[in-house]
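Open question from group meeting: does this chain pack into something compact, or does most of it stay loose? Before anyone orders reagents, we agreed to write out a predicted structure and look at it together. Recording both the input and the output here so the notebook holds the full record.
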Amino acid sequence: MMRIQKMLEYNKQFVANKNYEQFLSNSIPNKKMVVFTCMESRLVELLPKALNIQNGDVKMVKNAGAIIRKSFDSIIKSILVAVYKLQAEEIVVIGHHDCGMSCVNTNELMDMMKEEEGITEETFKALEYSGVDFHKEFHGFETVEESIAQSVEIIREHPLLPSRVLVHGLVIDPNTGKVDAISIDERKA
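Structure tokens returned:
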């Protein structure tokens, strides 16, 4: 049986037993907060427990490395919707130590795509022709602290973000749950 089939079988029992009732909430986050973090699997349960985040407390947005490089990407869109439509008043960018994005070698990644998965050179050229710089898109970061500071700055300086919205940066240790502040926005705290 495929993994997805096992998940769907489990879900049938979850719904039949009404296990969802303990998670009922509305769409407005209780803490009026957006958490933007890495897609790291070690953080799925650890991060909410380490910061006392319960179901319904925050809007959670994720990508590889909690990286924002452009002012108008899908992460920013999600954050702005949360601010304007879902009453979010604070944004917290949370990276983590030992992040896979800190060691991405884009040449090795490209070679792996070509050699192991058969992605052709023509595909990479078509991406480049379309304005996608593979190396810029997949480049990680040197330090998680610098990366979080960069993402925080892009959000804070966004022309559509209301000045009343606070933006913070944190780093979590995926082994212990210890959280360190990189940038706390104290403008109106």
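Observations to bring back to the group:
The chain has seven helices and five strands.
Residues 3-16 form the longest helix (14 residues).
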